[in-house]
Sequence to fold (243 residues):
Amino acid sequence: MTTAAAHPSAPDAPRAPHILVIEDHHDILANLHAFLEPLGYLIDSACTGPAGLAQAGRHNYDVIVLDLMLPGMDGIEVCRKLRQVLRQPTPVLMLTARDTLQDKVAGFDAGADDYLVKPFSLVELDVRLKALHRRARGAHVAAMLVLADLQLDLRTLVATRAGRRLRLTPTGVKLLSALMRAMPRVLTRAELERELWGDSPPASDALRVHMHVLRQEIDRDFATPLLRTVAGVGYCLDGGHAG
Fold:
């Protein structure tokens, strides 16, 4: 079921989210439509786990409201497939009658962003939906890291330089992301090793090898090197120093 907003927002006002509600209780769906549509929300709905997952895969929603107990596939599995199979970054607010810490941990571990226990206040639901929408829009704006002609898309983990896609290993992507987030600060060897291996770095000089491979890919075929080694300290990215 898809319903257009009855009262469009003013041109300069932030639009209300376009949400997908995956919920099998028709009374709850009716209440959500009755309360949220006059506030400007666009609402699509699905009544089973598989149907909701398929709907999420076909459209780009601002927020997904996901019931935990669903026919066909429970909310935990739907959320897990959204993240791991569809690679969907859409914020998920999970609805459930279960309020134990273990249930909440399971929801967040599956990839949920927020958790609301039934029965819930519709006013609180509206506030939470809008907060998730704002945060997601902010993340979208910051999803592209850029230095000169080097770009890293944090949503797809695709790096390009001068429009050419770079062939980075998963380790190379981690290193590039850390360096671009920190620039122009120098990251120490210890910081980079922690980024890759946590508190258990290998005994070998593996970081040096990975940095060499990264440098070859982002600098070798370009006139201006961007990756700089700071002797005795670590590495950084800047706009034009020899490495």
